[in-house]
Amino acid sequence: MFIHCVFFRLRDDLTAEDRQEFDEGVRSLLDIETVRHGFVGAPADTHRPVVLRDYSCGLVVAFDDKAGHDFYQDDPVHDRFRNECSHLWEDVKIYDVQE
User: How much is the average pLDDT of 12-24?
Assistant: First the structure.
């Protein structure tokens, strides 16, 4: 299994329309063929010193293996999301984990 975790810090000045564009774009990634499981959400309501909450939206997707992840990275849906939505975030952090 290969897990791809992406944490976006969205710009503070986004309009409701901008936020909808981002939400639709990030959720479109879940439809890529090699995604086995996926989740999009906001920071959980956990407030402990070790919990990082410096992001606006988290995306977690699971693939069978690294080949599935690599397919996802090259998929036109992923390219479209990056090209059309990257102006909406200030920062992005990515963590990949595999068995």
Answer: 98
